[in-house]
Amino acid sequence: MRKSFGPLARFFVAAFVALFLSGCGYNDLQRQDEQIKAAWSEVINQYQRRADLVPNLVNTVKGYAAQEQTIFIQVAEARANVGSIKATPELINDPVAFAKFQAAQAQLQSALSRLLLVAENYPQLKSDAVFRDLTAQLEGTENRITVARNRYIKAVQEYNVTVRSFPTNLTAMIFKMDVKPNFTVDNEKTISVPPTVDFGKSPTPPATSPAPASPPKN
Predict the structure, then answer these.
(1) How many angstroms separate the CA atoms of 210 and 46, rounded?
(2) Is the distance from CB of 203 to CB of 121 less than 8 angstroms?
(3) Distance between CA 31 and CA 42 in Å, rounded?
(4) Which of 39, 107, 149, 217 is most exposed by smallest CB count within 10 Å?
(5) CA distance 218 to 122
(6) pTM of this prediction?
(7) What is the number of other CB atoms lying within 10 angstroms of the CB of residue 99?
């Protein structure tokens, strides 16, 4: 009859496994993975904060510029596109879904920038207290998005280097820990230049048409 492992033997086996995993970078991979999840959660929170500002911002602009239907439709479509994609923690493990989500967020940011440009042509809107408060909130949110995305970029870069490096790449292979998607170069260009809200300047006057030429005298 075979003898069963005693408590001391089980202890040594557990200690060996722990040392093996630690030496092969398993603990580092787990720590970095948690950092990515935390950074991504903050990105999602700030994206949601921006999306929540959109309805009130659009309604305020409509009160002064109801005829600007094109930009209202563009903003509504962009926000709906963002809302159609579930921003789950698993999104960062799917490069295709991640790219689609980022494209939707870029579309919304672009639409909001155009909405703010429209406001430049309406002095009464620019001086509206509610509008100024909403745009200040939007600018602050865009800045927080920039900070959150930069933290995510750094966390993913550190993790991906670890996943690709020996011997942790073997550990990553065993536990199916793949590289994670990051922002593209185009994304980073957008990140580095968040929209600026400044309504202190006077609106540019519309170009005037030249006066019609006088008819020739007989």
Answers:
(1) 49
(2) yes
(3) 17
(4) 217
(5) 46
(6) 0.76
(7) 14
Burial class (CB in 10 A: 0-12, 13-18, 19+), 150: middle
pLDDT of residue 167: 86
**Which domains does the chain possess?**
15-192 (1.20.1440.20)
Per residue in 101-160, pLDDT (tens digit) is: 999 999 999 999 999 999 999 999 999 999 999 999 999 999 999 999 999 999 999 999
DSSP string, 21-73: HHHTTHHHHHHHHHHHHHHHHHHHHHHHHHHHHHHHHHHHHHTT-TT-HHHHH
Residue 101, exposed/middle/buried by CB under 10 A (0-12, 13-18, 19+)? buried
Q: Which amino acid is at 169?
A: N
Q: Exposed (0-12), middle (13-18) or buried (19+): which is 80, by Cβ within 10 Å? A: exposed
Q: What is the pLDDT of residues 42-84, one digit of tens each?
A: 999 999 999 999 999 999 999 999 999 999 999 999 999 999 9
Residues 6+ apart with CB under 8 A from 152: 36, 39, 40, 42, 43, 182, 183
Q: How far apart are CA 74 and CA 216, in angstroms?
A: 49
| Rounded CA separation 28/163 (Å) | 10
Closest CA to 139 of 215, 206, 198, 203: 198
